[in-house]
Design brief:
single chain, alpha/beta, six-stranded parallel beta sheet, 11 strands, zinc, ADH-like_C, (R,R)-butanediol dehydrogenase activity, NAD(P)-bd_dom_sf
């Protein structure tokens, strides 16, 4: 396998999924595992209260896990995007707020909902000065702040928060979680995972309906699944079936991702080297490899610009078979 040659054993994980489990749910296990571990780090229990800062994919998976573990708990989501606030309500948030339009931010709502004590846990998926300030203000004495964000800049922290004996922790270095999550999903303890899938596309459409869709309408999506192939529908009864090998071999359409935006050589000229057309799988692999440099190229017929992978890295595109 190409993946075995490009990555080491610490980078690739293979888990066995029971056959009845839908492949759509199986493809989301990694994201569920991240949320599952974050909730465990917070020591969250039924009846506890929580604040989720941000409404992106990671936040919504945390919301789903929290709601599965604590159906009656008060969970507030703070998110500036109207579309994502709507998604948060759909997936179990007790209340949502727009931090940019609320004078007291989450603090007023939290104190009202918790009789002035504050929440038991805050999950920060934003990673800004205002988010950490809100987190420390909204936590009750003995509460836990779980950082899920990648911070671009250093922030100032009022160390007086220690008087509340708040625990600040992260949730990135986890292991041996996937088996727990698979068992929890199979046992019905985490439900509605398939509802977090907002679209399913073919691999030939990974740029137009995947990357570009996330760049242009990212607030409307949580998970986009990419299928390497889709079995053709069965022919109608009595229809003649052609035995030509051309019909049985998958045909790659126009390039989805390429490592060059130079115009294709003139194939009529035998003196010029003919560019090799890459398969969709190779195109996705090339995009992943180029993620280290932060850019990837797409055909001229789509755009002349290079898109930064960092702007869509938070919205995972899973590949399922």
């Amino acid at each position: 396998m190409k993946i075995a040659r490009q990555y080491g054993p610490r980078d690739v994980r293979v888990e066995e999924i029971d056959e009845p489990e839908p492949v759509e749910v199986a493809a989301c296990i990694e994201s569920v595992a991240t949320a599952w571990h974050a909730v465990k780090r917070a020591n969250f229990n039924e009846g506890d209260t929580a604040l989720i800062l941000g409404g992106g994919p990671t936040a919504l998976f945390i919301l789903r896990v929290l709601r599965s573990a604590a159906p009656t708990s008060f969970i507030l989501v703070s998110e500036s995007s109207p579309a994502r606030r709507t998604l948060a309500l759909k997936h179990g948030a007790s209340e949502v707020l727009d931090p940019s339009n609320t004078h007291f931010g989450a603090t007023g709502i939290i104190y009202k909902a918790t009789a002035g004590f504050g929440v038991h846990a805050v999950f920060d998926t934003v990673g800004t000065q205002s988010s950490v300030d809100s987190a420390l203000l909204c936590l009750r004495t003995g509460g836990t702040l779980v950082n899920m964000a990648v911070w671009k800049t250093n922030v100032m922290v009022n160390m007086n928060f220690m008087f509340k004996e708040i625990t600040v922790t992260g949730a990135m270095a986890y292991d041996n979680v996937h088996a727990e999550v698979i068992e929890a999903v199979a046992g019905g303890h985490i439900q509605g995972i398939e509802e977090l899938i907002t679209d399913s596309i073919q691999i030939e459409d990974v740029v137009k309906k995947g990357y570009l869709e996330l760049l242009n309408k990212g607030d409307e999506h949580i998970k986009i699944l990419v299928r390497p192939h889709e079995p053709p529908p069965p022919p109608p009864e009595g229809a003649a079936q052609e035995s030509s090998s051309d019909d049985t071999e998958p045909k790659d359409e126009a390039l989805a991702i390429t490592t060059s935006n130079k115009p294709a050589p003139d194939e009529s000229d035998p003196t010029k080297e003919t560019a090799r057309t890459t398969t969709p799988i190779e195109q996705v692999a090339a995009a992943a490899a180029n993620a280290k440099t932060g850019t990837f190229s797409i055909p001229r017929r789509l755009t002349e610009k290079k898109l930064r992978l960092s702007s869509i890295r938070t919205k995972f595109v899973e590949v399922i078979d």
